[in-house]
Amino acid sequence: MTFTEGNFWxxxxxxxxxxxxCRGNHRLTVALFLSASLVFYGFHHWRLVPLLLAYCVVDWAxxxxxxxxxxxxxxxxLGVTFNLALLAYWKYTPLLLRTLADGCRWxxxxxxxxxxxxxxxxxxxxxxxxxxxxxxxxxYRRTTPYEPNFFRYALSAIFFPHLVAGPILRPDEFLTxxxxxxxxxxxxAPLEAVSLxxxxxxxxxxxxxxxxxxxxxxxxxxxxxxTAGVWSLPYVVLYAxxxxxxxxxxxxxxxxxxLLFGYRWPDNFNAPYLAASVQEFWRxxxxxxxxxLRDYLYIPLGGNRRGHGRTYLNxxxxxxxxxxWHGASWSFVLWGGLxxxxxxxxxxxxxxxxxxxxxxxxxxxxxxYRLTGVATTFLCVCLAWCFFRLTILTDALTCVAKWFVFDAxxxxxxxxxxxxxxxxxxxxxxxxxxxGPWAGRLAAAVAASQxxxxxxxxxxxxxxxxxxxxxxxxxxxxQRPPFIYFQF
Length: 488
Description:
Elements: H1 6-22, H2 26-42, H3 49-68, H4 72-106, H5 125-141, H6 150-158, H7 190-220, H8 233-260, H9 278-284, H10 287-301, H11 308-326, H12 330-351, H13 355-359, H14 363-389, H15 393-401, H16 419-447, H17 454-474
Helix pairs in contact: 1-2, 2-6, 3-4, 3-5, 3-6, 4-5, 7-8, 7-16, 7-17, 8-14, 10-11, 11-12, 12-14, 14-15
């Protein structure tokens, strides 16, 4: 089930109705949320529910063993190994079989080993595996207490708003709020919740899906004669915006649902394409994954505490593994490796190169340096997106080559020449730039409960309802593309 299905919103409405009837009854609330989460995950694939529950049982039991036993490192090892082993089996078995078969053919050996054609990866497995690993490590480090109640822990791991694509939550952001004395029994900031959900639906159904219709035919035939001479850069730029609107739209909906049920979760995006360096980009893009990689991989590897050479190596290892986490293809590893190279150059430039002096400049020099950094960072990120979008390496390299070699009369053709799409994106950018300061003030006013004027509150509610209606009018008709990050 996805956030764009009518069945999902029926499930949400029913869950919300019965949650309000529970009136703070802790056991009924936990049972209701668990039931709704299992229906959400298993609606189309009931055979995957035992896998989901197995993760919950093993992670909970391992944490209990760490808290109560004498060998916490053993329980940590067993729990993390279970998470990674299942993740590796489901995500990387086809990649391993393909690689071995290709290696045998290259050596001239006959082999019947092939990747199964009907292999399907359980959707969201990376996210709930990472959630379990974070919980186990935090319990081992004693930065969070273990949860003695299995049902509360299971709910923290599989609650349907964040189950499939995050945000990746830490125990103190959700699990500790599920106990009887802290579990909310009413929505938090309902106006903000509806605003987030309306904005998320607009990003996904109008912006991301309209871009998908424009760019998918090109990427599907990027190496075919039908796209010979076509300039690929506009399509890559559009895809960069598609994946941003798609994933940030999902996060907005998830956070809005969290607020609807009384939980405030961290944001995942902060205008990432305005970053002036790749290092800053990763502080703004998929922020809960970035902090996970930092806290549970980069810092344990040594971080930046052992000299510049070791820092660069740790950055490369972190990004290579982060790329591999995204998908079972070597192109994802290359995508992560490119970001590792970019981060390494970024660190060197800021610490030893002219960038250190330029960064400390003032006035017009600082503004030029900032704008140049934003443009350069965006192009570097777009270059890496080619290998993210096209999982066949030759297709990705062809796409990159078409950045520089193309026919002059094919600079803007096909979906990239859709003027209405560019007008839509420009209008959204202008509206976001103008509304940004006001949106911040409105959120602060909502948090401070200062919106007491019936006219102001009514206008805010009306705007959100109008945005939902506008989304329904402008959304493409027909089968909708799934959220991109559901495949991870």
